Amino acid sequence: MKIDLTHTTSSRINAALMDARRASGSTAAGMVLTLVIVTDEGSAYDALKAANDASREHPSRTLAVIKRAGRSPRARAETRLDAEILVGSDAGSGETVVLRMHGELAAHAQSVVLPLLLPDAPVVVWWPDNAPLHPANDPLGALAQRRITDAVTAESPVGQLAQRAASYTPGDTDLAWTRITGWRSMLAAALDQRPATITGAVVEGESYNPSVELLGLWMTNRLRVPVERIVTGGPGITAVRLRTQDGEIVLDRPDGLMGTLSMPGSPDRMVALKRRDTAELIAEELRRLDPDDIYAAAVRTPVDRLREKLPAEPAPSSEAVPAEAAAPARVTAKLPDAEPAAAEPAGPEPTDAEPTPKKPSAKKAAPRKRSTS
């Protein structure tokens, strides 16, 4: 059932919801929370579809807040509230209200949302994109017990993580953290099966993916070891390597679907590490409404503690990581750049003749050494 209301108010929307519930034969609400989605017209469809799919696990009243302040002074001066009510199969297992706020009303969205919240039920606010700098201080975020953002939609995902760390308030979370739940579970299970002392770790993944950074920060915080950051083409996180005295524990997922878990002394095993859609991520976040202390500790870990390496950068030292503990592809790609840097200080004679190039002078310097010896 779909009901359109123009130039309406919150009380009329509540009355229309009651009438729609009676018409569908259900007089009780039967919903467990209120999910407020703050989005725009471009992202509203995908966000509502994900919320409707998640409502089959968590029946909820979904309020989509779309602010349309207007571009011209005349449009900004017009204050109007339009609502679209969806009940039944169009709204998953709950109720959906799309609130389009025009003009000055867009700056006071909390006054429209507050009367529509379910009584005695938790409130969750989700920003699919364009999240505020301080979600807890936002007028809508102040109404919620949980506030969900997504750093991957920001222009600078790593910079967004730093902002989330600076503005963290108990109840905040980010979908970039939710995306690594499977990785954290598999790595913890691997260490439970084979207890070992971790001496170092490597995280490989896309350069702009904040989930790769969060996974490295989590391992830095929990394992207390240096974590190396390797940039790959993706998709997402491609591999994690834990260095031990017996060898490497490797969790590799090159295609974004299935992963391979390799441990010393054990056969390789295939594990399910499929990249999940937004509906599954939202459903996971709605399972717990208490503060996530593990996320707080991970996001507050300084990002500069990860040692990021690009393919063109030289290795810091050939003695820092043994060759047998590193991937062969990275060893062959980085050692040629490190050898000339170490060989230049050993031959100071060619630098005395400045007009001659470096390479020809190095060739002439070799015979002079042999003649003196």
Report, as a whole number of angstroms, the end-to-end distance.
Answer: 96 Å
Low-confidence stretches: 310-373
Estimate the helix proportion, in percent. Answer: 25-40%
Q: Which shape, going by the Cα principal axes?
A: elongated
SSE order: EHEHEHEEHEEHEHHEHEEEEEHHEHH
Strand content: 15-25%
The class by helix and strand makeup works out as alpha/beta
Spatial sequence of strands, sheet with the most strands: 1-4-5-3-2-6-7-8
Record field, number of beta strands: 15
Q: Number of helical runs? A: 12
Gyration radius from CA atoms, angstroms: 28 Å
- In this structure, how is the largest beta sheet organized? 8 strands, mixed
Overall average pLDDT: 81
Which helices and strands appear, and what pairs or packs with what?
Blueprint: E1 2-5, H1 10-23, E2 33-39, H2 41-54, E3 60-68, H3 73-77, E4 80-87, E5 95-102, H4 109-113, E6 123-126, E7 146-149, H5 157-166, E8 172-174, H6 175-178, H7 181-193, E9 200-205, H8 210-223, E10 227-231, E11 237-244, E12 247-252, E13 258-262, E14 269-272, H9 278-285, H10 293-299, E15 307-309, H11 328-343, H12 358-372
Parallel strand pairs: 2-3, 2-6, 3-5, 6-7, 7-8, 9-10, 10-15
Antiparallel strand pairs: 1-4, 4-5, 9-11, 11-12, 12-13, 13-14
